[in-house]
Structures are given as structure tokens and as C-alpha cells.
Amino acid sequence: MYCSFSRLSLAAAECSLFNSLPRNVLSLYKRLRLTSPAVPPTVCSRVSPRQASRTLAFPDCVCVCVCVCVPHPRRRKAGILPSLEDLLFYTIAGGAEKIPAHKFTTALKATGLRTGDPRLKECMENLKVIMKTTSDGNLDRHLFKKCVQSNIVLLTQAFRKKFVIPDFVSFASEIDALYENAKNLGGGQVADYIPQLARFSPDLWAVSICTVDGQRHTAGDTKVPFCLQSCVKPLKYAIAVHDHGTEYVHRFIGKEPSGLRFNKLFLNEEGESRNEYVGFSNATFQSERESGDRNFAIGYYLKEKKCFPEGTDMTSILDLYFQLCSIEVTCESASVMAATLANGGFCPITGERVLGPEAVRNTLSLMHSCGMYDFSGQFAFHVGLPAKSGVAGGILLVVPNVMGIMCWSPPLDKLGNSVRGIQFCTDLVSLCNFHNYDNLKHFVKKLDPRREGGDQRVKSVINLLFAAYTGDVSALRRFALSSMDMEQRDYDSRTALHVAAAEGHVEVVKFLLEACRVNPVPKDRWGNTPMEEAVHFGHHDVVTMLQDYNNKYSPPGGATEDKEKEISEKNIDGLL
Question: What is the pLDDT of residues 282-299, one digit of tens each?
């Protein structure tokens, strides 16, 4: 059986049986529906009555259970988008009959995804198996479809630029520039009161990014392991809240920043430790057990004031704390931890829920107010993002709903924060509107990597009209897959359909009308429609096609001249 949503009959939308389909299936149908003869659907004769309510059959179709049946692929007409796998193939192939395997992986990396992403495991395994059967290392359409079909949803999202950072290549280049700027920064002192920390070179510097969609980018010494130290505190606090709830945890821990040194012996008026970042040092496990006198002093002071649950074994608690601080990570793995906090507790790489929403919200709130030692107020003012630093040189930075970042460089300032890390975070917020209180609408001088820039929109108009001018249907398929507006206009309000009709490209006109379902009667600045362009230049085949399509076309929402003017003005605003 052959399954595709792209050739559903329009008549099926009016069928009560079809309307009983799940909402997400119906929505997908409406987005991908194409023109076809208005033939009423029937229940497939090859299924039992019990299955009939979930199965449709259309004349001249191969049966597909659960949702729909589609025409056999050999009966598809040219210019129609067959399936998501085919669309993806056309997008990458650029008109070629085969795709080199390295071209596919390179294009994949440009979206921000990695070949080692667990979500793409099936695709990469299929690719390895298929590559052993090919002599030239190229994939034709059939082999490509076999390779990607297990992960087609994720891959389609990536190549349609539906991730949180659409233009990831440009964003990554900006991150590299910020990295190089901070790399040249001098000053700071490597923590030397613990032998393990003092061994790190002051020249080490790394930045790793993981978005909530699993897009990854690294710069510098991101493979070098280091201890989390105090960067582990947000994670253990979040786990405690996730397991025991906010009310119980905050019987023993306050929420207000103290304004005092992080290892100060001090409680608030209610006899609580001020927040979960107070009271413990940042040494590795073995060193702390040998030279952790102050940690033990703080621990016993808290125990005396009954700041722990009854029956707490202080020695075991401190051993656990030392072990947590001694957990080794790399910048790459720590950025996934930060991205999990940015993603509401879901790991962006595996999709698994790690923390509850309440735990994440509380953790980010406390990171924002008191995560950077005595620099917390300044950091909240200038950077405005939740963060946590550690004396190993790490800074765990969270951009909620966007990404997690891990910066690491051993040299510390006098307050115990990474010199290069602070500079990078400050530069990042100066460049991008990630600050909590940046206005996303009016602060035009800042880059918003979550949106495609104006230059990209102008390029898309140029590329679209040029493809229509040259009759490049393959390029138009790629644009359609990337969610490009196929009705966008240039400064003369001319659409791709205007250009294709004027040039007499029948296949382009057919593709725009039948596959993309564009408006067949848009008017340019002189009031001309594509039909009038085709008549003027004597392209009778195009005229006939437009006339046939106009007879059965009904504009959405009853388009009028006022609506046409509104669309034109909106398009001009977009270009500007």
C-alpha cells in the first residue's frame, strides 16, 4: 500500500466520514490538498465493516487504512507534490536525479541537526546500510525515501526552517564572532585553592549551544571535561522540587538573595538559609573531603538551626554534595542540560520529560535572582537571563523557550565568575534581543535570530520570481517545501504567476495553480492579471489553463479589490 496525503480528493472534505477523521489528520489534509475531480469517496471494499469507519477509498486509488487512500504513484500527474519524502529529495537534489550522501549530511548539519542526534538514529542507520549497497555513494529518489521515511517529520521541520532558529548558519557565524571576541580577553585568575582546578590552562575557552529543537553549535575546547561545581545546584534544586514539591522544599530554603558572600554563615529572620546556592564550596569530591572544614562548619551550623529534615545524616549529605559538584561534563553535554531547562523540562535531544514545569519555573526564577554569586544583581540588570556560574569556570545560561548555552573558561574574576563567560553573555544580549525585557517588536537595532531577516525575505522574492521566469519547477518545489509564500510580490506587485504566464511556462503555471493553489487573479500595480499577461504575449496554452482554473476557483474569504489592495500593501511593508 502506498500512503500520501498530497492527493486527497477535495470532495472528501464534505464527506461526513472524512470529517470524522482526527483533527490533526484533517488539518494536514487541508494544508496539502490539491485539485482533483470532485468524486465522492467510498468505503473500501477490502476492509471489514468494523474498519469501515476508519478507512476511505477513492476511485482509481490504492487502499490505505486508517486515514486515506491515494492514487497509485505511476498515475500522478507531473508538477504535483507526491509526498514529504519526495519533496525533501527535490529540495536537496536541486534538480539532479541523485543526491551524494555527503551532500545530504552537509545540508542536514546546516539546519543545526547532527548526524548523531538520537532522533535521527533510524535515518542514519538506514543510510549506512544503503551506502554499502551503492558503488558511487549516491542516493536516487527511491533509496533516499527509504533512508529518511522513519524520521521524515523531524527532517521536514528542519528543511522547512520551522525550528526556533530558522537561519542557523547565520546565527552560528554570529556566535563564532562573539567567541573570538571573548577569546582575546585577558585577566582573571584560575582557582588555585583546589589542586584539581589549578591544573587547567588559562587559555581554555569553549562555548556550546543547544536549542529547544536540538540544533547544536560549538566553538573552542568543547570536548575537554570539567567539573560542574556550583553549576550543578540548579539541577539538584530542580530535581528536589520535581520529586517533593515546592512547598516542602521551601520549608528549608528561602527565595530571597542575601547579598552576602556565597559561603557566609548566615540565616534569615525565620531561621532559613537564604537560598539553595548558599553554604557549600566548589571543590572536587576527594579534595573536599580532605579540606572541607568550612563546608562542614556551614553544614553543622545549618543542622543546629534545624534547617534540615529530621533524621538527616550530615556526613552523608556532604558526601552527596561533594559528589554532585565533582560530576564531569563537557560544554556540549552541559548545553543540553541548559536546553532542558529552556525547554520546560523536556530534553530536546531525546524528547523525554526530565523535570516538571513547576520545578523548571522555580529554578529559572532563582537562577535569575541569585545564580551568579555577588554579581547576580549586575548580571540580571545587564544580561537579564537565568544563569549559574561555578568556580571551575563554567556559566550555565538559559534563554527560556529558545536555547541553553554553556560557557567555560577557567580564569575567574574577583567574584568567582568566568571572565570570558561574562563577556560572552553580555555581548550576546547586546547583539540579540534575548534580554527578558527587550521589546521584540520595536527594538529593531538588535538581531532576533528567531525570525528570518529582511534580507532573507528580499532574497526569497528574487529567487521565487527568477525560478518562475526560467521555468524551474524543481526550484519552486523546494520553495514550497520551505513554507515560502508562493503569492509574495515584488515592488511592482507582480507574483510568480504573473511572470510565468508572461513567459509562457505552462508547467510552472500548472504547479502554482494545482500544487500551491495560488490566487489566479492577482493584480499588479498597473491592474494586470496573469491572464492578461498571457493574452498579451500570445501564450494560448496558459490562457486556456487559467480560464479552466478560474471557472472552478473560489477565493478564500471572498476576496475583493479592497482585499487585494490590503495584500499588496502588506507585501510592500514586508519588503521594507
Answer: 444 455 555 556 666 777
